[in-house]
């Protein structure tokens, strides 16, 4: 594969961030003959330090040595580091190329890549695509999920990759082009990283298709207003394949008489909704997107059907934890934005005690008001600062309780819930005020529920 990176053959590769993507890139960089230096402003986890030591890769943590970093020919920035970080600003001012792991690693593989992005549903869809493909194809899962894409490329074992891609990873691409790209949906998220400008965030998501050609495919939600608006005003080269639960689609996926129907190149796939392993509108859309990918890659219909029937979703996404005194406890810690929580509340069928809160990324809670009014009997706040949540829902909920941590939140929810109710952790916020990640938050929730 042609690559700008290889043409320029920069000698010094500096990697900012010593986590999964950083260490994977370091290993691949060493393998490709770069002089590699890893720098992390925080502390590098022991397991990653060991990988660096075993590969004789130089690193530092607990701060950046800017003199050394600024001599780089190429910099790979981990997705969690914002563009406005002083070291990144200094690099860009100096004209050093700053890219993402996805851009770096894709230059060293000829594998078929399926790239999946969107504000919500991308982890579920990526995991489901991987499950659909792995029986018939030699495939790996990577990107924002699972093992580092760069590390897997360095091992050279795979002919196909399914990559979950965040807007931050797409911000750092130059030539990266997946053969099949999927945009699950758009809703305001991470606006703190996009100067609170929703259009900048949307443009970032659409970068997934900017380098695709006429031989590639772009799969998208045709019911999404913002996606349609963008497509109406921008040209893309890839073949567009929509999916919809509201209208019939000639070439793509739609619903008819409670069946998913996918039509591609005169090939028709049908599947009854009732047999899907996970239910709910958003899961129907995830299944449509994933099945469309599988159909394009010529996976057998029988394999697709069996896989969709068996698939039970992903951890921390509407994950049923336990039933205690006939109260169901559900872990939706992965709901880090308002739209994800909208789906969660929408799927509730019993009175709900809702645990919400964390680091607000510029949230507008107004779209949740009708659902909270209809479904939520009590709100348990789980954040360092809950003022915005109290202001948003104070008029429609009689019961709003503030708590200081997960154990207390779960105990309070237990007291507020009656038989046949649901306790739902769906925070609509990032987790970094009280937890290390949404996974940490979800696991602490499950642990607290098990100790009730």
UniProtKB/TrEMBL annotation:
Main location as per UniProt: cytoplasm
Limits of the Mur ligase C-terminal domain: 316-429
Pathway the protein contributes to: Cell wall biogenesis; peptidoglycan biosynthesis
InterPro entries: Mur-like_cat_sf, Mur_ligase_C, Mur_ligase_C_dom_sf, Mur_ligase_cen, MurD
Record's keyword terms, sorted: ATP-binding, Cell cycle, Cell division, Cell shape, Cell wall biogenesis/degradation, Cytoplasm, Ligase, Nucleotide-binding, Peptidoglycan synthesis
Annotated GO CC locations: cytoplasm
Signal peptide span: none
UniProt-recorded Gene Ontology molecular function terms: ATP binding; UDP-N-acetylmuramoylalanine-D-glutamate ligase activity
Family statement drawn from the similarity comment of this UniProt entry: Belongs to the MurCDEF family.
Function text: Cell wall formation. Catalyzes the addition of glutamate to the nucleotide precursor UDP-N-acetylmuramoyl-L-alanine (UMA).
HAMAP family cross-referenced by the UniProt entry: MurD
Annotated protein name in UniProt: UDP-N-acetylmuramoylalanine--D-glutamate ligase
Organism: Patiriisocius marinus
């Amino acid at each position: 594969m042609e690559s700008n990176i290889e043409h320029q053959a920069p000698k010094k590769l500096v990697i900012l961030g010593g986590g999964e993507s950083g260490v994977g890139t370091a290993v691949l960089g060493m393998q490709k003959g770069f002089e590699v230096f890893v720098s992390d402003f925080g502390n590098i986890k022991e397991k990653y330090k060991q990988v660096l030591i075993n590969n004789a890769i130089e690193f530092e943590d607990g701060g950046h040595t800017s003199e050394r970093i600024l001599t780089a020919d190429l910099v790979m920035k981990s997705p969690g580091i914002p563009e406005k970080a002083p070291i990144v600003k200094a690099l860009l001012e100096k004209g050093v190329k700053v890219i993402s792991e996805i851009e770096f690693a894709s230059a060293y593989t000829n594998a078929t890549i399926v790239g999946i992005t969107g504000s919500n549903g991308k982890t579920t869809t990526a995991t489901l695509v991987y499950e659909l493909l792995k029986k018939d194809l030699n495939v790996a899962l990577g990107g924002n999920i699972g093992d580092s894409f760069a590390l897997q490329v360095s091992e050279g074992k795979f002919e196909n990759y399914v990559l979950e891609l965040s807007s931050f990873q797409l911000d750092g691409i130059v030539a990266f082009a997946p053969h099949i790209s999927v945009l699950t949906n758009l809703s305001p998220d991470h606006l703190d990283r996009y100067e609170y400008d929703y259009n900048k965030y949307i443009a970032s998501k659409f970068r997934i298709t900017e380098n695709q050609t006429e031989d590639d495919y772009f799969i998208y939600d045709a019911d999404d207003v913002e996606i349609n608006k963008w497509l109406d005003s921008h040209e893309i080269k890839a073949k567009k394949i929509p999916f919809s639960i509201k209208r019939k689609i000639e070439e793509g996926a739609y619903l008819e008489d409670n069946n998913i129907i996918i039509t591609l190149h005169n090939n028709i796939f049908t599947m009854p909704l009732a047999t899907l392993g996970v239910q709910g509108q958003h899961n129907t859309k995830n299944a449509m997107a994933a099945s469309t990918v599988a159909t394009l890659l010529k996976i057998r219909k029988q394999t697709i059907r069996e896989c969709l029937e068996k698939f039970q979703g992903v951890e921390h996404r509407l994950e049923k934890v336990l039933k205690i005194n006939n109260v169901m406890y559900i872990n939706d810690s992965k709901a880090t934005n308002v739209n994800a929580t909208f789906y969660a509340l929408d799927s509730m069928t019993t009175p709900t005690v809702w645990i919400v809160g964390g680091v607000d990324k510029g949230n507008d809670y107004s779209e949740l008001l009708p659902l909270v009014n209809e479904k939520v009997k009590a709100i348990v706040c789980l954040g360092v600062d809950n003022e915005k949540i109290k202001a948003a829902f104070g008029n429609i909920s009689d019961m709003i309780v503030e708590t200081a941590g997960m154990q207390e939140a779960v105990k309070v929810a237990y007291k507020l819930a009656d038989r046949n109710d649901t306790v739902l952790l769906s925070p609509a916020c990032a987790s970094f005020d009280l937890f290390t990640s949404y996974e940490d938050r979800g696991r602490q929730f499950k642990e607290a529920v098990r100790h009730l």
